[in-house]
Amino acid sequence: MQSLLRAILSPSFAASILRVTTPILFAGLGAVVADLSGVVNIALEGTMLFAAFTGVVVSAFTGSAWLGLLAGIVIGAVIGLTLGYSHLKLGTNPVLAGIALNLLAAEGTVFLLYVVAGDKGVSSSLASKVIPEWRIPIIKDIPVIGPILGKQNALTYMSLIAVAVVYLFLYKTSFGLRLRAVGENPDAADSVGISVHKVQFIALAISGALAGMGGVHLSMGYVSWFSRNMTSGRGFIAMAAETLGYRHPVGVFLASLLFGFADALSNYMQSLRVPGEFIQMIPYVLTLVALAIYSGRQSRSRRSSR
Fold first, then answer.
1. Cα(first)–Cα(last) distance of the chain, in Å?
2. pTM for the whole thing?
3. Which of the pair, 306 or 150, is modelled with greater confidence?
């Protein structure tokens, strides 16, 4: 028990929390942008999976990790626009459309992996690239803080920057104001000349692009390969983080850190004599507990308001 406590309090464990938080944070920010526009993006899981696959394939064929990242962002935006077209133009229920895209990604990426790499499990035959780590010159030499923030994957730093960028975009720009107005009352927004569908399409494209960055981190930040269903429910955990964070970028960041802590803890406990099934379920149990607490808090708030 003491060794576990020492590990949790170590700078290396804090650094691992940031690493595993990155994909959840990107997808959670994407969920915030879509939700505030009035459309729930259920397809985050599938978007991350498609982006993870696309990034690996493009980086392998071009020899550039950054082109792989760009391709993952583009495919993420395309998935978001596909969800928008299905819902906004064809009238499909966004939840059903999102579930369909998730199912398509789960099996479609396996088929594409077999076509491209001749394997249905892992893309180990592809010489894909890895997004490099960045070293921050001054911060890396600071005790305690240096081992945590001084050397991380580039996408981890981008995810932290994305929190501030999404906040400024939503709350300090005129388009962010229109986006929130559309989500709050689309009829009122339409009456003052705001194109509701245009705003929602843009919001879903941004949402998909952010989720795509999270997906690329899984296949090109953690490792240099793609494996089937490697997202392991992180898209749904990101939606839980968005709910717990009260649809606010800073709140999503804090909630994502909570889930990142559970994920990092489960990774560390694999070295201990703990059943693997118990270890794997820790992040998901925490998700259920956190949502139960959130639901209870919301119920008490409604009762007090009445």
1. 47
2. 0.90
3. 150
